[in-house]
Fold this protein.
Amino acid sequence: MGDFDYSVIFDNLPLLIDGLKVTFLLTILAVVGGIVLGTLLALIRIAKVPVISWVAAAYVNFFRSLPLILVIFWLYFLVPLFLGRPVGSFYSVLIAFILFEAAYYSEIIRAGISSIRSGQVAAGRAIGLSYPQTMRYIVLPQAFRSMVPVLLTQAIVLFQDTSLVYVVGLKDFLVSAELIANRDQRLVEMFVLVAIVYFFFSFAGSLYARHLQRKLSV
Amino acid sequence: MIEINHASKWYGDFQVLNDCTTRVDKGEVVVICGPSGSGKSTLIKCVNGLESIGSGDISVDGSKVNGRKTNLNQLRSRIGMVFQSFELFPHMSVLDNVMLGQLKVLKRSTDEAEQRAQALLLQVGLADHAYKYPAQLSGGQQQRVAIARGLAMDPIAMLFDEPTSALDPEMINDVLDVMVDLAQDGMTMMVVTHEMGFAQKVADRIVFMDEGRIVEDSPKDEFFKAQGSERAKEFLSKILTH
Ligand SMILES: Nc1ncnc2c1ncn2[C@@H]1O[C@H](COP(=O)(O)OP(=O)(O)OP(=O)(O)O)[C@@H](O)[C@H]1O
Ligand SMILES: [Mg+2]
């Protein structure tokens, strides 16, 4: 293997940074999309509308019963088929992550909403707010506040899981590093770097989540 | 103003309200009392449709609360409600609590809503606390904010569900004073409370409930002369000697 060669990192910095950008973009878009769709699913389930709420529950249970890698794989083939044209691996995996994460987020959000005392809803309704207004102005802001640490923790898991795009060859951080590693025969340097980078962001993120948790609990 | 006609309600097999009939006229103050579990909260929640009744009907200012054509949100915006546990919105400042309904339901402008909110906070003695959050206030202060929040909608009637029973004794009077002022200004009020001093001072009628039934509904003086039912007498002697 020889000596640890830092220069391979610096020489390929632009490529690595591009890969990291893809990883972050995917994480951020999937978190935002997942939270939006997850909130919708949670609201539908809580509203207990016949049929629709049942469909939402079935959706959540379905996606929670599948391995993420399978969803990524399937969507990679299904999305172009469904749209009738190629969409590029980035969009297909993004959709896969959003659909998958939404199922998990919806459970977190549903728990968050249920933790708000029913008296708050009554108070909102009593001043004449409609049910959607009560959710929007009273229940959701409080629910999200209490959920931030859990949502952040879930986002860290997602950040790590984005590396699964490996199976469809999307050039995220891991895939970029691997390409360089094979091309330059610098496997040790590259995989140590990858480990350090994932560890750094995940650890910083979970420290921050714990900090928020403590701040919110006082 | 508020008319309750033969209202009954069931939770499964359990009958919470049993053929309740009473009314609150404009400007009247009616106090509702009775033992725990007798259905007082349920009755008052049925008046603004937070709970629905199983049979009978309730109307407020001529509109049926349980009517199909009634816009319940609009009707609720015209009836203020104060809860035992305050239920201020903890993520909003006191001022925002009092402004929310004005902005989102009455569609008042921010300036107008803020002016009204400030005026009401002054009226309940909390002008200095507008920018605090509910958690920074004492229970008595929170309950007065809740009253201001209800009044901000310019309601035609106010409902109170044991507004002082979660408060420390030294704060009860601050809240009752605000309520007495309201009553004396001619507000139509339906008040679930065991504060008989308040009832003596401002109530027009007292309704006594037991096991889902209205067992007594009489003018204040008659009620306190205790010519009423045995059950009410027994109950009164218990709470008055506390
Ligand atoms: N959602 C519900 N489901 C089933 N039973 C209920 C429900 N809400 C209230 N009850 C029952 O209805 C009865 C009347 O309740 P309510 O809260 O109206 O009584 P209350 O007179 O206000 O009592 P308190 O003085 O304790 O507040 C109680 O026996 C209560 O257990
Ligand atoms: Mg009660």
